[in-house]
From TrEMBL:
SUPFAM superfamilies: Barwin-like endoglucanases. Pfam families: KWL1. The gene is LOC105053640. GO terms for cellular component: extracellular region. Residues 1-23 form the signal peptide. CDD domains: DPBB_kiwellin-like (cd22270). The keyword Signal applies. This is Ripening-related protein 1. It is found in: Secreted.
Length: 186
């Protein structure tokens, strides 16, 4: 009986996720997570292309879509090393991590106040999978300031991954950037 209820619930969730027009790249279950506010870009000393534009509003998310056995997400690349593009040390352990370690940062909702810190997630992409340890948060609430390198808040569906994760998934260098993946708790 319990497996029937779980199957029925999954079917309902999948049907509910098929509606168009959501802010989430994968429409599955995204309506459950709407922007909680906006942060406004301001003048900055930004030297990168992905910085906040003065006067533009960027959505803030305190939530992320529910985690499933195959949670859809966008994987981005991040250096967790000192002096890398990740800024300060990782939120979970206050340390920097080598780009040769399979580590990730999760959007605020999935990071969930550090509840996944030190735990592994399994990432699937390009016909491969890899275990990666959660060591940081990809802040979906704050941004456009010096503490965030004048970058906008992360989207609510980001897995920010080290170079080692990309290498383990055998994703060609030419495709590094925003890459559609699925992931689950390991």
């Amino acid at each position: 009986m319990e497996s029937f209820i779980l199957s029925l619930l999954l079917a309902v969730l999948l049907l509910a996720s098929s509606s168009p027009g959501t802010c989430f790249r994968f429409p599955s279950l995204a309506k459950a997570c709407k922007p909680s506010g906006y942060v406004k870009g301001n003048f900055s000393k930004c030297i990168e292309n992905d910085c906040c534009a003065a006067g533009k509003k960027y959505p803030q998310y305190r939530c992320s879509p529910p985690v499933t056995e195959a949670t859809h997400a966008t994987m981005t690349i991040k250096s967790f090393e000192e002096g890398g593009d990740g800024g300060g040390p990782s939120e979970c352990d206050g340390k920097y991590h080598s780009d040769n370690e399979t580590v990730v940062a999760l959007s605020t909702g999935w990071y969930h106040h550090g509840s996944r810190c030190g735990r592994n997630i399994r990432i699937h992409a390009n016909g491969n999978s890899v275990l990666a340890k959660v060591v940081d948060e990809c802040d979906s609430v704050n941004g456009c300031d010096a503490d965030h390198d004048f970058q906008p808040p992360c989207d609510n569906n980001i897995v920010d991954a080290s170079r080692a994760v990309w290498d383990a998934l055998k994703i060609p260098l030419s495709q590094v950037g925003d890459y559609e993946i699925t992931w689950s708790d390991a």
